[in-house]
Design goal:
The chain is an alpha/beta fold and about 210 residues long. About 45% of the residues lie in helices and about 15% in strands. The protein binds zinc ion.
Length: about 210
């Protein structure tokens, strides 16, 4: 952890500040864990799954055909699997689908999005992360986005995306960083709030 301190603050005070900050950081990590914690998913009809902030009810169909997932106009998530497919198979199928949908949005952002994207980034990817929504490797100009973002409202994805891209301009969360954020995404504070308060990734919610 790096700490920036004004000159007139004593070491003891710095230590105190860091210690109190540590408990805050631990609490934040717990909040994050709680938010992405997955309760046991069974992948049965009626189960609720989130897709870009909307709760969709699963409709499970077993048939001898290529497994696929479709989001119906009604908001139902139709999952076709082969008869007897395991929970793991269904979970994998859903994660592949989440990843594809997330990719589509990121690609459209990279085409229509901010000039940040075009000039700075070399590569990006999506992966499962346990404690972060996104990360940025400044030297390699590569960003990673958490697969879980496919479950959150789209403005949350945009917020994380812009946040990581701004790191290509400024490493630290300082004044300059916030200025860039304000410039590229004036509503970022609201989106951040949405991300931190959006419902748990999964709830047992079956009709
Ligand atoms: Zn950051």
């Amino acid at each position: 952890m790096r700490v920036a301190v004004p000159k007139h603050i004593t070491d003891d005070n710095v230590r105190l500040a860091v210690v109190s900050k540590l408990s805050w950081i631990k609490k934040q990590q717990q909040v994050f864990k709680d938010q992405v914690r997955q309760s046991e998913r069974r992948y049965v009809s009626g189960e609720c799954h989130y897709f870009f902030g909307k709760r969709c009810r699963l409709e499970l169909i077993e048939l001898e055909a290529k497994p696929e997932i479709k989001l119906l106009r009604s908001g139902k998530l139709k999952m076709c699997v082969r008869p007897g497919a395991t929970v793991e198979t269904k979970e994998k199928l859903l994660n592949v689908w989440y990843r594809e949908e997330l990719k589509k949005i990121i690609l459209s952002y990279s085409k229509n999005g901010s000039p940040l994207w075009a000039r700075r980034i070399k590569d990006w990817g999506i992966k499962k992360m346990k404690t972060k929504w996104g990360s940025c490797n400044i030297e390699q100009r590569r960003i990673w986005l958490n697969l879980e973002l496919a479950k959150k409202p789209p403005e949350c994805l945009e917020y994380i995306l812009v946040h990581e891209l701004v790191h290509l301009l400024e490493r630290n969360h300082n004044h300059q960083f916030i200025e860039w954020m304000d410039q590229f995404l004036p509503n970022w504070r609201i989106s951040k709030q949405t991300l931190n308060t959006s419902p748990l990734a999964n709830e047992d919610w079956i009709y």
